Every structure is written in C-alpha cells, then in structure tokens.
Amino acid sequence: MRLMRRLALRVPLLAAATAVAASPMFVPDAPTSAAVFSQADSEIEAMLPEMSTGKDQQLLITGTDAQSRNARIPVHKALGRELAHYAPIGSGLPQYSTALNCLTQAIYYEAANEPQKGKMAVAQVVMNRMRHPAYPNSVCGVVYQGVNNRVCQFSFTCDGALLRKPLQRQWLESLSVAKEAMNGKQLPDVGTATHYHADYVVPKWAYTLAKINVIGRHIFYRFRGRAGEPSAFTAKWKRSESVPSINWARFDAEQDQLPSIDSVSDQRNEWVPGLTVAPTASDRHTTNDVGGRIDTTKEWRLTIPDPVDMRSSYEASVSDQVEASSDPTEAAGAAQ
Questions:
Q1: What are residue 196's phi and psi, to 5 degrees?
Q2: Distance of alpha carbon 64 from its chain centroid, rounded?
Q3: What residue spans of 48-167 are helical by DSSP H?
Q4: Which of 113, 109, 91, 112 is closest to 100 using CA atoms?
Q5: What is the 3-state secondary structure (H, E, C) of 163-218?
Q6: Degrees to nearest 5, angle at CA 182 with 178 and 187
Q7: Which residues does residue 61 pair with via DSSP β-bridges, in sequence order?
C-alpha cells in the first residue's frame, strides 16, 4: 500500500514536469555574452564596440599595400561552420517591414556593387549577429548599433550615406536578397561570420579573429574559440523592431567642417595633380597619374568649336585636298 501511495504522489508530479519541458513556450535562456566568451577572449569582447566597418575604426594599413597584407592572412577553411537553420521572420508579422527595410539598407549601402553572393554574405553577417548573444537580438538593432556613437558598427549609418537616395536597380537587388535572408536562406561560404571589412584596409581587429573567406571586395571573419562555434548562436529574435533616433545634425556639422571652394582655391598648390578631392584609401593610382580626370586646378577649360562656324574652313580644306590630288598630265589629256 505504501508503494502504491508513493507512486500515486510521484506520477502527477512527473507528468507536470514532463508537460512543462515539452511546452513550446519553455525555452531555455540563451547564454549571456560573458558566458559565450571565455576568459581568454575578454580582450576581444572589450573591443567589440570599436570593431567597425567604417572610417573611424583603427586601421593598420590602407591602399594597395593593404590588399597584399590581407592576402597573407591565412584562411581557416575548417572554421567555416554552417549554422543551424532558424525560423524565418514571417512576412505577416507587423515587425516584418521594419526589419526588411533595415536589412535592405545594410545590403545596399555596404554591398550595392558587389555580386549577388557578396550581397548574400553581408546579409548573413547581419542575421548571424542577431543570433549571437554579443549583439542586439533584432535586425534593426544590429544594423544601427552605435549609430550616434563615435564608432558605429556599419559605416553607412553614421557617415551621412543615408542622406543619398538609393539607385533603383541596386535597391531592388538588395531587397530581394534581404527577403531571402529573412526567410531563412543561408550561405555556407560565410558560415558563422560576424565581421567583414573591405580588402583595401587592414583594421586592427583583423588579427584577433579567424579569417574564413573572401567574397568580392570583402573579407569575412568569425570569432575564435567557443564564441565562433555554431553552438554559441543561441540568441532569439526579440520580436520587436525599431530604428533608433538619429542625430542628423551630426552630418550637418561634418559638412560645415569641409573646406569651402574659396579655401580650396587658395590651397590648390597642395593638391595632387589631377585630383580635385582629397586622396582616399580607395584611390588606386600613382601621384603623377591623373586617371583620366580633368585637372580643374589648371587655368584652362575644354572647348569644342561650333560646326557652323567651322564650315568655311572645312570646305576650304576639302578644296585644297582635291587640287593637291589632281594629276596635271591627266587634266591636260582630258582637255584635248
């Protein structure tokens, strides 16, 4: 009897525990960033806010020298682990359009002129970050992280690029890629990548991560150790999307700091021949190569003569050519 009573007490408790564990609402909490990063990786975790794709990141080398240096960083093929598939962000959800616009912006402004695969790779980095506990767990939160700080995670959100109207063809291409990414499509070549940078710069953080692939003009990296393993990507989409308030006056202030036309004309002797803008890391030419550009620092302007004004000169030239090509002997024979 005692045994039967014990069983009678335990069975309801066991059934209740089983029901809770089987419930779809029972989802174990994702590990925090501190749990994902080991003690040895604490330095990397501290660097995350500075690990940007933008101009304010710490660069070791720029220009063509950067390409050769980047090529010497070994690619860890074994580290390109594919992530498990995730539930798509349904198009019927009220947050869908906001998330889709944020992801499309990231693809367009970061990879508008990249091939299709390059656009997909950038989209996956955004989605990978959303699934990693070290980053915000929303699409817009990832894209706009640090937008009003000195260093933002994606340069287009804090360099004024959003003020430029997108080109229609490239925008529609980016939109198509964004829809596929939000529907769960992944690119195995990118795997668990959470970072990338252009091949004409070498950021300081490039040597702290594991390089896994080069696609188009971008080089992709993942975290080393446990933080870069597929098992670390356990964060859940928080089912909330919003674009943060942006300090647009910041861009006006940056424009005010640019040299005026008068100040540029006063400093024309300091410009590189053929350049009417300050040289950047993306320029690829020697100092004496004007690159097919008109050097507006010179005192001349290209002029094309009016064909009407040149008509008499043209007819005179034709007449002279006819007379010069005529044979006097043949002309005399024809007269007889």
A1: -160, 165
A2: 19
A3: 64-71, 96-111, 116-130, 139-143
A4: 91
A5: HCCCCHHHHHHHHHHHHHHHCCCCCCCCCCCCEEEECCEEEHHHHCCEEEEEECCE
A6: 75
A7: 202
Q: Is the pTM of this model over 0.85?
A: no
Tell the residue number behind the tokens 């003569």, with chain if given: 305
Token code pair at residue 289: 């190569």
**Residue 311 identity:** R
| Cβ–Cβ < 8 Å for 137, 185 | no
Strand ordering across the sheet containing 195-198: 195-198, 218-222, 210-215
145-149, 202-206, 283-287: least confidently modelled range: 283-287
Local confidence band at 113 (pLDDT 50, 70, 90 cut-offs)? very high
Which is it for the CA torsion 200, 202, 205, 210, positive or negative? positive
- CATH code, 53-254: 1.10.10.2520
Residue 62 pairs in a beta bridge with 201
Q: Residue 267 half-sphere exposure, CB side, CA atoms within 13 Å?
A: 13
The owner of tokens 């024309």 is 268
Residue 264, classed as helix, strand or coil, is helix
pLDDT per residue over 266-303, tens digit each?
333 343 444 444 455 554 555 545 455 444 555 555 55
Secondary element (H or E) of residue 318:
helix 311-325
